[in-house]
Amino acid sequence: MEKNQRAWSHLLVTVFLTGFATLIVAPAITDVTMLALCPGTDECSLAIYLSGFQQAVIGIGTAMMLPIIGNLSDQYGRKALLTLPMTLSIIPSAILACNRTTNYFYAYLAFKILTAMICQGSINCLALAYLADTVSYHQRASAFGVLAGVTSGSYLCGTLAARFLSTGSAFQVATFVSLFALVYMRIFLEESIPAEQAEGITQPILSEGEEDVSWKDENAPAKMSAFKRIPSPWDVICLLRNSPSLAQAAVVAFFNYLGEGGMESSSMYYLKARFHFNKNQFAELMLISGIVATISQLFLMPLLVSRIGDGRLLSIGLFVSCVYAFLYSIAWSAWVPYVATALTTVMVFAPPSLQSIASKQAGPRDQGKAQGCISGVSSLANIIGPLIFSPLTALFLSEETPFHFPGFSIICIAITLMIAFVQSLMIGRAPSNTDGENNSDGTEA
Questions:
Q1: CA–CA separation, 253 vs 356, rounded Å?
Q2: Within this chain, do residues 75 and 149 fall inside the same structural domain, yes or no?
Q3: I want to staple 294 with a disulfide (CB 3.0 to 4.6 A). Which of 53, 152, 285, 341 is the partner?
Q4: CB neighbours of 142 closer than 8 A, spacing ≥ 6?
Protein backbone atom coordinates (compact mmCIF):
# COMPACT_ATOMS: atom_id res chain seq x y z
CA MET A 1 0.00 0.00 0.00
CA GLU A 2 2.83 2.42 0.90
CA LYS A 3 4.55 1.68 -2.39
CA ASN A 4 1.33 2.39 -4.29
CA GLN A 5 0.83 5.66 -2.41
CA ARG A 6 4.30 6.81 -3.48
CA ALA A 7 3.47 5.87 -7.07
CA TRP A 8 0.20 7.83 -6.90
CA SER A 9 1.96 10.90 -5.51
CA HIS A 10 4.55 10.84 -8.31
CA LEU A 11 1.79 10.45 -10.89
CA LEU A 12 -0.20 13.36 -9.43
CA VAL A 13 2.90 15.59 -9.44
CA THR A 14 3.48 14.69 -13.09
CA VAL A 15 -0.12 15.47 -14.03
CA PHE A 16 -0.04 18.77 -12.11
CA LEU A 17 3.16 19.93 -13.81
CA THR A 18 1.96 19.07 -17.31
CA GLY A 19 -1.39 20.77 -16.72
CA PHE A 20 0.33 23.85 -15.34
CA ALA A 21 2.63 24.06 -18.37
CA THR A 22 -0.37 23.82 -20.71
CA LEU A 23 -2.51 26.47 -19.03
CA ILE A 24 0.19 29.03 -18.36
CA VAL A 25 0.42 29.80 -22.09
CA ALA A 26 -3.29 29.48 -22.94
CA PRO A 27 -4.21 33.14 -22.23
CA ALA A 28 -1.34 34.40 -24.41
CA ILE A 29 -2.05 32.32 -27.52
CA THR A 30 -4.72 34.68 -28.87
CA ASP A 31 -2.47 37.74 -28.64
CA VAL A 32 0.47 35.87 -30.17
CA THR A 33 -1.71 34.67 -33.05
CA MET A 34 -3.12 38.14 -33.74
CA LEU A 35 0.33 39.76 -33.58
CA ALA A 36 1.85 37.20 -35.94
CA LEU A 37 -0.95 37.13 -38.51
CA CYS A 38 -2.63 40.55 -38.32
CA PRO A 39 -0.36 42.99 -36.46
CA GLY A 40 -1.98 46.23 -35.36
CA THR A 41 -5.59 45.08 -35.78
CA ASP A 42 -8.30 43.87 -33.39
CA GLU A 43 -10.02 41.60 -35.90
CA CYS A 44 -8.45 38.84 -37.98
CA SER A 45 -10.46 36.39 -40.06
CA LEU A 46 -7.32 34.40 -40.89
CA ALA A 47 -6.71 33.79 -37.17
CA ILE A 48 -10.29 32.58 -36.69
CA TYR A 49 -10.14 30.23 -39.67
CA LEU A 50 -6.74 28.84 -38.67
CA SER A 51 -7.89 28.29 -35.09
CA GLY A 52 -11.00 26.46 -36.31
CA PHE A 53 -8.94 24.34 -38.71
CA GLN A 54 -6.47 23.56 -35.94
CA GLN A 55 -9.23 22.51 -33.53
CA ALA A 56 -10.92 20.29 -36.12
CA VAL A 57 -7.73 18.50 -37.23
CA ILE A 58 -6.54 17.98 -33.65
CA GLY A 59 -9.95 16.67 -32.63
CA ILE A 60 -10.07 14.15 -35.47
CA GLY A 61 -6.50 13.10 -34.74
CA THR A 62 -7.08 12.56 -31.02
CA ALA A 63 -10.28 10.61 -31.69
CA MET A 64 -8.22 8.15 -33.75
CA MET A 65 -5.01 8.17 -31.68
CA LEU A 66 -6.31 7.85 -28.11
CA PRO A 67 -7.62 4.27 -28.51
CA ILE A 68 -4.32 3.30 -30.12
CA ILE A 69 -2.25 4.91 -27.35
CA GLY A 70 -4.41 3.28 -24.68
CA ASN A 71 -4.07 -0.13 -26.30
CA LEU A 72 -0.29 0.20 -26.67
CA SER A 73 -0.03 1.15 -23.01
CA ASP A 74 -1.68 -2.19 -22.15
CA GLN A 75 1.14 -3.87 -24.06
CA TYR A 76 4.17 -1.79 -23.10
CA GLY A 77 3.18 -0.03 -19.90
CA ARG A 78 1.87 3.38 -18.90
CA LYS A 79 5.26 4.94 -18.16
CA ALA A 80 6.65 4.03 -21.57
CA LEU A 81 3.68 5.56 -23.37
CA LEU A 82 3.61 8.64 -21.12
CA THR A 83 7.10 9.47 -22.32
CA LEU A 84 5.90 10.05 -25.89
CA PRO A 85 3.26 12.79 -25.36
CA MET A 86 5.26 14.46 -22.59
CA THR A 87 8.27 14.72 -24.88
CA LEU A 88 6.33 15.97 -27.90
CA SER A 89 4.45 18.59 -25.86
CA ILE A 90 7.71 20.46 -25.20
CA ILE A 91 8.29 21.33 -28.86
CA PRO A 92 5.50 23.90 -29.57
CA SER A 93 6.10 26.00 -26.44
CA ALA A 94 9.87 25.86 -27.02
CA ILE A 95 9.41 27.35 -30.50
CA LEU A 96 7.48 30.36 -29.20
CA ALA A 97 9.86 30.67 -26.25
CA CYS A 98 12.60 31.39 -28.82
CA ASN A 99 10.66 33.88 -30.93
CA ARG A 100 7.10 34.85 -31.82
CA THR A 101 7.48 36.33 -35.29
CA THR A 102 5.30 35.17 -38.19
CA ASN A 103 7.67 32.44 -39.38
CA TYR A 104 8.10 31.06 -35.89
CA PHE A 105 4.34 31.14 -35.38
CA TYR A 106 3.70 29.06 -38.51
CA ALA A 107 6.33 26.58 -37.32
CA TYR A 108 4.57 26.49 -33.95
CA LEU A 109 1.19 25.95 -35.62
CA ALA A 110 2.46 23.03 -37.71
CA PHE A 111 4.14 21.30 -34.76
CA LYS A 112 1.20 22.05 -32.48
CA ILE A 113 -1.24 20.31 -34.81
CA LEU A 114 1.02 17.29 -35.28
CA THR A 115 1.94 16.88 -31.62
CA ALA A 116 -1.50 17.66 -30.16
CA MET A 117 -3.04 14.78 -32.10
CA ILE A 118 -0.94 12.53 -29.85
CA CYS A 119 -0.59 14.68 -26.73
CA GLN A 120 -4.04 16.18 -26.21
CA GLY A 121 -5.96 13.98 -23.79
CA SER A 122 -3.43 11.15 -23.83
CA ILE A 123 -1.68 12.11 -20.57
CA ASN A 124 -4.99 12.10 -18.71
CA CYS A 125 -6.03 8.86 -20.42
CA LEU A 126 -2.80 7.11 -19.42
CA ALA A 127 -2.95 8.56 -15.90
CA LEU A 128 -6.43 7.06 -15.47
CA ALA A 129 -5.18 3.68 -16.68
CA TYR A 130 -2.19 3.95 -14.30
CA LEU A 131 -4.50 4.55 -11.34
CA ALA A 132 -6.72 1.65 -12.42
CA ASP A 133 -3.64 -0.60 -12.35
CA THR A 134 -2.68 0.35 -8.81
CA VAL A 135 -5.98 1.21 -7.08
CA SER A 136 -8.47 -1.37 -5.84
CA TYR A 137 -11.85 -1.80 -7.51
CA HIS A 138 -13.80 0.05 -4.81
CA GLN A 139 -11.39 3.00 -4.59
CA ARG A 140 -11.17 3.91 -8.26
CA ALA A 141 -13.93 6.53 -8.33
CA SER A 142 -12.30 8.36 -5.39
CA ALA A 143 -8.87 8.12 -7.02
CA PHE A 144 -10.20 9.40 -10.34
CA GLY A 145 -11.87 12.27 -8.49
CA VAL A 146 -8.57 13.20 -6.82
CA LEU A 147 -6.84 13.08 -10.22
CA ALA A 148 -9.50 15.38 -11.67
CA GLY A 149 -9.07 17.71 -8.69
CA VAL A 150 -5.32 17.89 -9.20
CA THR A 151 -5.91 18.63 -12.89
CA SER A 152 -8.33 21.43 -11.99
CA GLY A 153 -5.79 22.76 -9.49
CA SER A 154 -3.06 22.81 -12.12
CA TYR A 155 -5.33 24.73 -14.49
CA LEU A 156 -6.15 27.22 -11.75
CA CYS A 157 -2.49 27.75 -10.83
CA GLY A 158 -1.48 28.03 -14.48
CA THR A 159 -4.15 30.65 -15.15
CA LEU A 160 -3.10 32.68 -12.11
CA ALA A 161 0.60 32.47 -13.02
CA ALA A 162 -0.16 33.65 -16.56
CA ARG A 163 -1.72 36.78 -15.09
CA PHE A 164 1.64 37.91 -13.66
CA LEU A 165 4.04 36.79 -16.42
CA SER A 166 4.87 38.44 -19.72
CA THR A 167 4.09 36.55 -22.91
CA GLY A 168 7.71 35.59 -23.56
CA SER A 169 8.27 34.52 -19.96
CA ALA A 170 5.13 32.38 -20.00
CA PHE A 171 6.40 30.27 -22.91
CA GLN A 172 9.84 29.97 -21.33
CA VAL A 173 8.36 28.82 -18.02
CA ALA A 174 6.06 26.38 -19.84
CA THR A 175 9.02 24.86 -21.70
CA PHE A 176 11.05 24.49 -18.49
CA VAL A 177 8.14 23.00 -16.50
CA SER A 178 7.32 20.54 -19.31
CA LEU A 179 10.94 19.40 -19.45
CA PHE A 180 11.12 19.14 -15.66
CA ALA A 181 7.89 17.08 -15.62
CA LEU A 182 9.35 14.66 -18.18
CA VAL A 183 12.57 14.19 -16.20
CA TYR A 184 10.64 13.84 -12.94
CA MET A 185 8.36 11.20 -14.44
CA ARG A 186 11.22 9.18 -15.91
CA ILE A 187 13.15 9.21 -12.61
CA PHE A 188 10.47 8.73 -9.96
CA LEU A 189 7.41 7.14 -11.55
CA GLU A 190 7.45 3.35 -11.48
CA GLU A 191 5.83 1.21 -14.14
CA SER A 192 2.33 0.18 -13.09
CA ILE A 193 1.86 -3.10 -14.96
CA PRO A 194 3.79 -6.11 -13.62
CA ALA A 195 5.74 -7.95 -16.30
CA GLU A 196 3.63 -11.07 -15.87
CA GLN A 197 0.40 -9.21 -16.69
CA ALA A 198 1.22 -7.89 -20.15
CA GLU A 199 3.23 -9.18 -23.04
CA GLY A 200 6.26 -7.17 -24.02
CA ILE A 201 6.20 -4.96 -20.95
CA THR A 202 9.78 -5.81 -20.01
CA GLN A 203 11.06 -4.95 -23.48
CA PRO A 204 11.51 -1.53 -25.08
CA ILE A 205 8.88 -0.59 -27.63
CA LEU A 206 11.43 -0.64 -30.42
CA SER A 207 12.94 -4.00 -29.52
CA GLU A 208 10.71 -5.99 -31.85
CA GLY A 209 11.28 -3.46 -34.56
CA GLU A 210 15.02 -3.98 -34.22
CA GLU A 211 14.52 -7.68 -34.68
CA ASP A 212 12.35 -7.01 -37.71
CA VAL A 213 15.15 -5.23 -39.58
CA SER A 214 15.82 -8.38 -41.49
CA TRP A 215 14.78 -9.57 -44.86
CA LYS A 216 14.29 -13.16 -43.79
CA ASP A 217 10.86 -14.58 -44.49
CA GLU A 218 10.68 -16.39 -41.17
CA ASN A 219 10.41 -13.04 -39.40
CA ALA A 220 7.14 -12.18 -41.16
CA PRO A 221 4.90 -13.67 -38.41
CA ALA A 222 6.66 -11.58 -35.78
CA LYS A 223 6.08 -8.49 -37.87
CA MET A 224 2.42 -9.32 -38.32
CA SER A 225 2.01 -10.01 -34.59
CA ALA A 226 3.48 -6.64 -33.69
CA PHE A 227 1.34 -4.91 -36.30
CA LYS A 228 -1.84 -6.49 -34.97
CA ARG A 229 -1.23 -4.90 -31.59
CA ILE A 230 -2.38 -1.58 -33.09
CA PRO A 231 -6.20 -1.56 -32.85
CA SER A 232 -8.43 -0.88 -35.80
CA PRO A 233 -11.85 0.83 -35.51
CA TRP A 234 -13.38 -2.63 -35.69
CA ASP A 235 -11.45 -3.64 -32.55
CA VAL A 236 -12.98 -0.72 -30.67
CA ILE A 237 -16.45 -1.67 -31.93
CA CYS A 238 -15.90 -5.26 -30.79
CA LEU A 239 -14.80 -4.04 -27.38
CA LEU A 240 -18.02 -2.03 -27.02
CA ARG A 241 -20.18 -4.91 -28.29
CA ASN A 242 -18.66 -7.32 -25.78
CA SER A 243 -19.35 -4.98 -22.86
CA PRO A 244 -22.86 -3.45 -22.90
CA SER A 245 -22.11 -1.30 -19.85
CA LEU A 246 -18.98 0.09 -21.51
CA ALA A 247 -21.02 0.83 -24.63
CA GLN A 248 -23.60 2.65 -22.52
CA ALA A 249 -20.80 4.59 -20.82
CA ALA A 250 -19.51 5.58 -24.27
CA VAL A 251 -22.98 6.85 -25.22
CA VAL A 252 -23.13 8.88 -21.99
CA ALA A 253 -19.65 10.25 -22.70
CA PHE A 254 -20.64 11.24 -26.23
CA PHE A 255 -23.73 13.23 -25.25
CA ASN A 256 -22.08 14.71 -22.17
CA TYR A 257 -19.06 16.01 -24.08
CA LEU A 258 -21.26 17.02 -27.01
CA GLY A 259 -23.04 19.34 -24.60
CA GLU A 260 -19.84 20.47 -22.91
CA GLY A 261 -18.17 21.24 -26.24
CA GLY A 262 -21.19 23.26 -27.31
CA MET A 263 -21.27 25.09 -23.98
CA GLU A 264 -17.59 26.03 -24.19
CA SER A 265 -17.93 27.36 -27.73
CA SER A 266 -21.20 29.25 -27.17
CA SER A 267 -21.55 30.43 -23.58
CA MET A 268 -19.06 33.33 -23.73
CA TYR A 269 -20.58 34.77 -26.92
CA TYR A 270 -24.04 34.36 -25.38
CA LEU A 271 -23.07 36.19 -22.18
CA LYS A 272 -21.32 38.95 -24.10
CA ALA A 273 -24.35 39.57 -26.30
CA ARG A 274 -26.89 39.17 -23.50
CA PHE A 275 -25.19 41.01 -20.61
CA HIS A 276 -22.13 42.65 -22.23
CA PHE A 277 -19.64 40.57 -20.26
CA ASN A 278 -15.95 41.40 -20.76
CA LYS A 279 -12.71 39.55 -20.12
CA ASN A 280 -12.70 40.48 -16.43
CA GLN A 281 -16.10 38.93 -15.82
CA PHE A 282 -15.16 35.85 -17.84
CA ALA A 283 -12.00 35.53 -15.74
CA GLU A 284 -14.08 35.78 -12.56
CA LEU A 285 -16.37 32.98 -13.72
CA MET A 286 -13.37 30.80 -14.66
CA LEU A 287 -11.66 31.39 -11.31
CA ILE A 288 -14.83 30.63 -9.34
CA SER A 289 -15.39 27.48 -11.38
CA GLY A 290 -11.77 26.37 -10.97
CA ILE A 291 -11.68 26.88 -7.22
CA VAL A 292 -15.01 25.15 -6.65
CA ALA A 293 -14.10 22.22 -8.93
CA THR A 294 -10.73 21.66 -7.26
CA ILE A 295 -12.15 21.64 -3.72
CA SER A 296 -15.11 19.46 -4.69
CA GLN A 297 -13.09 16.82 -6.53
CA LEU A 298 -10.33 16.62 -3.94
CA PHE A 299 -12.42 16.56 -0.77
CA LEU A 300 -16.15 16.18 -1.39
CA MET A 301 -16.26 13.49 -4.08
CA PRO A 302 -14.18 10.85 -2.17
CA LEU A 303 -16.64 11.15 0.74
CA LEU A 304 -19.76 10.83 -1.40
CA VAL A 305 -18.66 8.06 -3.75
CA SER A 306 -18.02 5.67 -0.87
CA ARG A 307 -21.60 6.19 0.33
CA ILE A 308 -23.73 6.39 -2.83
CA GLY A 309 -21.50 4.84 -5.53
CA ASP A 310 -20.13 6.13 -8.82
CA GLY A 311 -23.29 5.28 -10.80
CA ARG A 312 -25.55 7.52 -8.76
CA LEU A 313 -22.87 10.20 -8.57
CA LEU A 314 -22.65 10.18 -12.37
CA SER A 315 -26.42 10.66 -12.70
CA ILE A 316 -26.46 13.44 -10.11
CA GLY A 317 -23.61 15.26 -11.87
CA LEU A 318 -25.31 15.02 -15.24
CA PHE A 319 -28.67 16.17 -13.88
CA VAL A 320 -27.09 19.23 -12.28
CA SER A 321 -25.30 19.94 -15.58
CA CYS A 322 -28.75 20.05 -17.22
CA VAL A 323 -29.93 22.53 -14.57
CA TYR A 324 -26.79 24.61 -15.11
CA ALA A 325 -27.38 24.89 -18.87
CA PHE A 326 -31.09 25.60 -18.35
CA LEU A 327 -30.31 28.49 -15.96
CA TYR A 328 -27.90 29.95 -18.53
CA SER A 329 -30.52 29.73 -21.27
CA ILE A 330 -33.15 31.71 -19.33
CA ALA A 331 -30.76 34.03 -17.46
CA TRP A 332 -32.63 37.26 -16.73
CA SER A 333 -29.82 39.12 -14.97
CA ALA A 334 -26.02 39.26 -14.98
CA TRP A 335 -25.83 37.64 -11.55
CA VAL A 336 -27.52 34.42 -12.72
CA PRO A 337 -24.35 32.99 -14.40
CA TYR A 338 -22.44 33.58 -11.15
CA VAL A 339 -25.04 31.63 -9.18
CA ALA A 340 -25.09 28.90 -11.83
CA THR A 341 -21.30 28.56 -11.57
CA ALA A 342 -21.75 27.36 -7.98
CA LEU A 343 -23.38 24.22 -9.45
CA THR A 344 -19.89 23.24 -10.64
CA THR A 345 -19.52 21.76 -7.15
CA VAL A 346 -21.71 18.86 -8.28
CA MET A 347 -21.22 18.94 -12.06
CA VAL A 348 -17.57 17.89 -11.76
CA PHE A 349 -18.62 14.53 -10.30
CA ALA A 350 -19.70 13.26 -13.72
CA PRO A 351 -16.40 12.76 -15.63
CA PRO A 352 -14.48 10.86 -12.88
CA SER A 353 -17.55 8.71 -12.15
CA LEU A 354 -17.91 7.87 -15.83
CA GLN A 355 -14.22 6.96 -16.08
CA SER A 356 -14.55 4.78 -12.98
CA ILE A 357 -17.52 2.90 -14.46
CA ALA A 358 -15.62 2.34 -17.72
CA SER A 359 -12.59 1.13 -15.77
CA LYS A 360 -14.65 -1.46 -13.90
CA GLN A 361 -15.86 -2.98 -17.17
CA ALA A 362 -12.33 -3.83 -18.32
CA GLY A 363 -9.81 -6.33 -17.06
CA PRO A 364 -6.24 -5.44 -16.00
CA ARG A 365 -4.94 -5.97 -19.53
CA ASP A 366 -7.56 -3.70 -21.09
CA GLN A 367 -7.54 -0.60 -18.88
CA GLY A 368 -5.69 1.51 -21.43
CA LYS A 369 -7.96 0.29 -24.21
CA ALA A 370 -11.11 1.13 -22.22
CA GLN A 371 -9.94 4.60 -21.19
CA GLY A 372 -8.66 5.27 -24.71
CA CYS A 373 -12.04 4.30 -26.12
CA ILE A 374 -13.94 6.66 -23.79
CA SER A 375 -11.41 9.45 -24.42
CA GLY A 376 -11.68 8.96 -28.19
CA VAL A 377 -15.48 9.17 -28.06
CA SER A 378 -15.19 12.32 -25.92
CA SER A 379 -12.79 13.91 -28.40
CA LEU A 380 -15.14 13.13 -31.28
CA ALA A 381 -18.04 14.74 -29.39
CA ASN A 382 -15.92 17.82 -28.67
CA ILE A 383 -15.47 18.25 -32.44
CA ILE A 384 -19.14 17.87 -33.28
CA GLY A 385 -20.44 20.05 -30.44
CA PRO A 386 -19.05 23.40 -31.65
CA LEU A 387 -20.01 22.56 -35.25
CA ILE A 388 -23.65 22.19 -34.18
CA PHE A 389 -24.12 24.77 -31.45
CA SER A 390 -21.86 27.64 -32.56
CA PRO A 391 -23.87 28.39 -35.74
CA LEU A 392 -27.10 27.96 -33.75
CA THR A 393 -25.87 30.46 -31.18
CA ALA A 394 -24.87 32.92 -33.89
CA LEU A 395 -28.30 32.59 -35.52
CA PHE A 396 -30.31 33.28 -32.37
CA LEU A 397 -28.07 36.17 -31.35
CA SER A 398 -28.42 37.83 -34.76
CA GLU A 399 -31.18 40.06 -36.08
CA GLU A 400 -32.34 37.27 -38.43
CA THR A 401 -33.42 34.96 -35.62
CA PRO A 402 -36.59 32.93 -36.38
CA PHE A 403 -38.00 33.91 -32.97
CA HIS A 404 -36.70 35.86 -30.00
CA PHE A 405 -34.95 33.44 -27.68
CA PRO A 406 -31.22 34.33 -27.26
CA GLY A 407 -30.61 31.25 -25.14
CA PHE A 408 -32.19 28.77 -27.55
CA SER A 409 -28.86 27.09 -28.37
CA ILE A 410 -28.07 26.77 -24.65
CA ILE A 411 -31.40 25.09 -23.92
CA CYS A 412 -30.65 22.68 -26.79
CA ILE A 413 -27.40 21.91 -24.96
CA ALA A 414 -29.45 21.27 -21.81
CA ILE A 415 -31.56 18.76 -23.77
CA THR A 416 -28.37 17.04 -24.97
CA LEU A 417 -27.15 16.75 -21.38
CA MET A 418 -30.57 15.41 -20.37
CA ILE A 419 -30.13 12.60 -22.91
CA ALA A 420 -26.81 11.76 -21.24
CA PHE A 421 -28.55 11.82 -17.84
CA VAL A 422 -31.31 9.45 -18.97
CA GLN A 423 -28.76 7.10 -20.51
CA SER A 424 -26.74 7.12 -17.27
CA LEU A 425 -29.79 5.79 -15.42
CA MET A 426 -29.75 2.78 -17.76
CA ILE A 427 -26.18 1.76 -17.00
CA GLY A 428 -27.31 0.27 -13.70
CA ARG A 429 -25.21 -2.08 -11.63
CA ALA A 430 -23.78 -4.15 -14.46
CA PRO A 431 -21.37 -6.93 -13.45
CA SER A 432 -17.75 -5.89 -13.60
CA ASN A 433 -14.99 -7.64 -15.47
CA THR A 434 -12.50 -6.78 -12.75
CA ASP A 435 -14.07 -8.31 -9.66
CA GLY A 436 -11.36 -9.84 -7.61
CA GLU A 437 -8.64 -9.15 -10.14
CA ASN A 438 -7.05 -6.38 -8.12
CA ASN A 439 -6.76 -8.45 -4.99
CA SER A 440 -3.31 -9.58 -5.97
CA ASP A 441 -1.77 -6.12 -5.79
CA GLY A 442 -2.37 -5.56 -2.12
CA THR A 443 -4.66 -2.60 -2.56
CA GLU A 444 -7.91 -3.94 -1.20
CA ALA A 445 -10.42 -1.39 -0.05
A1: 12
A2: yes
A3: 152
A4: 301, 302, 305, 306
124-150: average pLDDT: 81
Among the three residues 192, 223, 239, which one is the final residue of a domain in this structure? Answer: 192
Phi, psi of 44 (to 5 degrees): -155, 100
Is residue 46 located within the same domain as residue 156? yes
255 CB neighbour count, 10 Å cutoff: 22
Q: For residue 331, is it left (φ>0), alpha (ψ between -120 and 50) or beta?
A: beta
Do 163 and 50 share a structural domain? yes
* Residue 378 in domain: yes
Which CATH number goes with the domain that contains 138?
1.20.1250.20
- Residues of the domain holding 58: 1-192
Provide mean pLDDT across the span 4-22: 85
- Spatial neighbors of 277 by CB under 8 A, at least 6 apart, are 268, 271, 334
Reported as a pLDDT band with limits 50, 70 and 90, residue 198 is very low
Exposure string over 282-315, b if 16+ CB within 10 A, otherwise e: eeebeeebbebbbbbbbebbbebbeeebbbbbbb
Q: Which of 167, 66, 192, 130 has its CA nearest to residue 359?
A: 130
One domain, residues 169 and 306: no
204-207 contact pairs (CB < 8 A, 24+): 204/80, 205/72, 205/76, 205/80
Give Cα separations from 41 to 28, 52, 225 (angstroms).
16, 19, 56
CA proximity to 92, closest of 72, 76, 78, 109: 109
pLDDT at 229: 53
Same domain, 184 and 245: no
Distance (Å, whole) CA 122 – CA 141: 19
pTM of the entire predicted model: 0.73
Q: Is residue 226 part of a domain?
A: no
Residue 212 within any structural domain of the chain:
no
Q: Quote the CA–CA distance of 323 and 309 in Å, as a whole number.
A: 22
CA-based nearest residue to 321, from 294, 295, 289: 289
Residue 105 and residue 118: Cα distance in Å, rounded? Answer: 20
Please check whether residues 165 and 274 belong to one and the same domain.
Answer: no
Q: What is the DSSP string of 119-158?
A: HTTHHHHHHHHHHHHHS-GGGHHHHHHHHHHHHHHHHHHH
